[in-house]
Amino acid sequence: MRVDLISRRPVRRLMAAGAAVACVWAAAGSRSDASTIGVADRGIYVFSVNGTSMEGLHPGAVRRTRVTVTNPYPFRIAVRHVEARVAGSSRRHCKPTATNLAVGSYLGSLPLTVPAHGRKAAGKFEVRMPNTVADACQKATFRLTFTATADRVGR
Length: 155
Prior knowledge:
It is built from no helices and 9 strands. The chain is an all-beta fold and 155 residues long. Strands 1, 2, 3, 4, 5, 6, 7, 8 and 9 form a 9-stranded mixed β-sheet that branches. The N terminus is likely disordered.
C-alpha cells in the first residue's frame, strides 16, 4: 500500500504563553508584557497570548482581563485551549496564591480561528481579589501568565 506523504502531514501543535498585569490598591498603571516559549525544532510553533492590564483591585473587587491571540505565521491557527494563572507579584511577601488573587475560568468560545499574520480577541478571564488578601499585597502588582494550544488550520 502506498501512502501519499503530502496529504498525510502530521498535525503541528502550537503553543503560546503571555502575560498581563493586575495592579492593586491604586498602584501605578502598567502595560501588558508578552513572553513566549519556543520549541520549533520539535514541530511545536509559538504564538502569543496577551491580557489587558487591570487596575484598582481591592479586597472584594472583580475585574476582567481581555485576552488577545497573535498569529505570526502565514497560515491560520485554531486555538483549542486557553488558561491563566497568577504567576507572581511585585511585593516579596505577597504570594501569588488564590487567597490573594483568584483567576476564574476562561470566558469565551473555542476553538477560535486566528487569521494568518493576524490577531483576534479571544475572550476574557475574570480576576477576583478575595477578602482574604494579605496586607502585604497593598499596592502590589500581580502578573498573570497565559498558556494556550492551537492547531494549524488546513487550507
